Give the backbone structure.
Amino acid sequence: MTDLARTNDAAFTGPVLQAVNLSKNFQKLQVFQNLSLDLQRGEVVALIGPSGSGKSTFLRCLNMMETPSSGQVLYQGASVIPSFRDRGDQIGIGTLRRNVGMVFQHFNLFPHMTVLQNVCEGPISVKRMPKAEAQALGMHFLGLVGLAEKHDSYPSKLSGGQKQRVAIARALAMQPGVLLLDEVTSALDPELVGEVLDVIRTLAREGITMAIVTHEMAFAADVSSRVLFLDKGRIAAEGSPDEIIFNPSDERLSNFVSRTRN
Amino acid sequence: MTYTWDFHSIWQNFDLFWFGLQVTVLYTVGSIVFGVLIGIATCAARLSRWRFLGYFARLYQELFRCTPLLVQLLWFYYAFPLLVGVNVDNHFAAMLTLSLYVGAFYAEIFRGGIISIDRGQQEAAAAIGMSPSQAMWRIIAPQAIKRMLPSFINQSVIQFKNTSLISVLSVADLAYMAAVVNGQTYRPLESYTVMALLYLAILVPVTQLADLLEKRMRTSD
Ligand SMILES: Nc1ncnc2c1ncn2[C@@H]1O[C@H](COP(=O)(O)OP(=O)(O)O)[C@@H](O)[C@H]1O
Ligand SMILES: [Mg+2]
């Protein structure tokens, strides 16, 4: 495992992040029921499925951006409670999110901060890291996404692809155990998609544990070790990229894959 | 009509104007400071998850935004003491009323600024592990402040002019002192013109500065 993927609890050998029988409903709308997922360290799982099938909501439950209606999220075996602070052996949302990073479709960079300030904000104000150390760390991750020379720019001066790479660096700067990516190329012009996917491929090679929601089938096949097909709020198919994307057995799955692949 | 302006007696009483101007500035600055604190608290209550806090804050805002300031001043000085059975000092009543009045408007300005910030900002802050208050002060507020600055300054300019109403409670502000000078000199035209010019002299630079600030901020986006 490389430097990038090292976390403070490298000794822990079980699944880094687990969802156990998660269900979520918005008032009457049942988004999904009893979804479970184990993410092993270094594993990359791709979540695919039609729009509205609950992929984003599921991903957002994994870092408690949405509170699950029932079920449990566990980080390194510790169950997560819906309060900000830890309580005993249970970890709070604050600790969970320090360790489970998220990258959004619309980047959500902080527009009042420079690129480097965006990346250093988490280490400085959440981890209380000394400024100089955080900046060195920030420059390291900006280098990794190929944007070191933009560190003094404001987000408004960047292209969509550059913004998303900064957003990835911002998440990495927290040195999370897991990274959640929700359709991170969907808001980009087609010619900018490649540079972002390349960065994510690098992260996969470096052993970063990731759960990725994507519509890019070739990318999903290429980067992930396991693919989950979410349909109507349940896992309709699960397996290797080969089984799910290249040789789909399920009819709805094969329709979905062939529609999305081109 | 021929009127011979005579400022001589006005200059002789200029120390009264000067005193009045200082009082006006004091009440403006004081009520702005208290008003900001009240505004932040009220805004927090309005945005809070606890519904009843929000209703309570809303009630306060409506009371103070939908009655004239003059009426509020009279009420706090003449009616409120009867209610609680304690005499209220006129300076205290003036400062309290001015602060509550402007606080109700500030709260609405703050709230508007905060809810205008994209929800994604709050989510991105939360995603790196920030607590809700960290997200507010580090991420949301700096962006919101920039957006609400023009309305904030505008409301504060109005507040400066509104302080003239405290003269009805015999607080010796600029308007009150102008009346005093008029009473002594029988020169209403000069007294009240000098008063108006003093208000202008303070506020024109403030509004100019505000325009400049707004322009600078627009270019930095
Ligand atoms: N905050 C919300 N309130 C109400 N309904 C929501 C909310 N978020 C998502 N939904 C609904 O949940 C369903 C799943 O949405 P989502 O998880 O975004 O699907 P996907 O990401 O797979 O497209 C959709 O029907 C969507 O309208
Ligand atoms: Mg989605």
